[in-house]
Each structure stands twice: as C-alpha cells, then as structure tokens.
Design a protein that fits this description.
Strand order of the largest sheet: 5-4-3-6-7-12-11
Structural class: alpha/beta
Helix content: 10-25%
Shape: globular
Distance between the termini: 38 Å
Strand content: 25-35%
Order of helices and strands: HEEHEHEHEEHEEEEHEE
Number of strands: 12
Radius of gyration: 17 Å
Number of helices: 6
Amino acid sequence: MKDIFGKALMDYQNGDYSEDIVTWTHISDKDVLPLPYLFRSYSEMPILEQKALQHSKGHVLDVGCGSGSHSLWLQNEGLKVTAIDNSEGAIKVSEQRGVLDTYHRAILEETNSYDTILLLMNGSGIFQELSQVSKYLKHLKSLLNPEGQILMDSSDIAYMYEDDDGGFWQDLNSRYYGELDYYLSYKGETELPMKWLYLDFDTLNAACQSVGLYCEKLMDGPHFDYLARLTSL
C-alpha cells in the first residue's frame, strides 16, 4: 500500500494543502473527501460521532484514528486514549497534533484491554467482508474490560441500489450488498482498491448475537446511518 491517505494528512498538517482526496467505489462515481474535514473540531463532527464521544468512558481505544480529532477531544475531556491506525502517515500526524499514545497497528494486532473501543467514520469498514465480521467481533470482545463497550457507526446502503422507479437492482446471488471495492486517489496517485464493509443494523445485530455480544442502537443518523453500542452478554 502506498499510504496515500497518510500522505494527504501529512501535506495538510505541514501546510501543503493544494487538493483533496478523491474516492469512489465499484457502484458509485468519484467523490471528493475534503482534507479539512479530516481535521474537524468537535462542533464540526456529525451528531453520531459527537454522541459516541459523549458515551466514551475509561481507557479508550480509537481504532482508525486518522488525524486524531476524536482522540484529541477525548484527551481534552480527561480520558486516557490509545490511538491506532494502519496508516503510518496518520499516526505521525496524530502525534504532531498532540495525541499522546499512538501506534501504527491494525486492530487484529491489538492485545491490550479497554473500557471503550471506538470505530467511527463507518467503523464496520475495517471488517472488509461479511464473512469476516465474526472474526473481528470476537477479537474486539476479547479486548474489553469488564463492563466495557464498543461504539461503532455504520450505514445501510441499500438505497444505493434503488432505481428511479423505487425498485432495487441487487443481485441476490452476489455478495452482500454492503461489501464495496473502495478506491482512493490523491495528487495523481491511486491506491490499490481495498475491501470496505457497510453493515445494516439487523445484520450487525445477528452477528453480535452469534459471538455473545449485546447490540443496541443508540441513535439513527440523518442518512441511513446509525450508532451502535456493543457489550458482552
């Protein structure tokens, strides 16, 4: 991987902001991901993210921390935060911005225990495919302290398959409709496509039950998205 995401964050952090990240999937056209949005303050965050931060407690693991915006707010609120990301550039930026405890690490490499595990900005994306959800949930569950919680947001993207007549063009013999091939480009470079998973709440709930997690919806967002809290049964 070229870590284009990390390069973009580093450019913005170092005052070399000249263009934004471009993203697309195998079912959607190109869209712009503005770099300033990745450095947003608490007041600029979507309501689901604000709600998740408000519900955070104890020692927090910020999974896929990006530029560290969530971690910084939690630190300022007095919470102990550990921030991890697959992107080396993202970790460097988080450190530069003041996140105190950071690691260039994938979630499946994590072994410490936490009171709150945050997976935001479509946190289910890191599961990649529906067939891997149980594996990730079991690992996340193993990282929870007693009375610990996982706070995760995602979206039901069935609407993306709706035609002009209100019908749906999903191929029921194909893969789960929330499994996307996700592409990213920045300053003329294109990253290799990665698997990215959007989970509808019912599917997440069923997966949680299968691994001994209780799943509750804390809040619906404005556009088919939601915030869920997962706890051990």
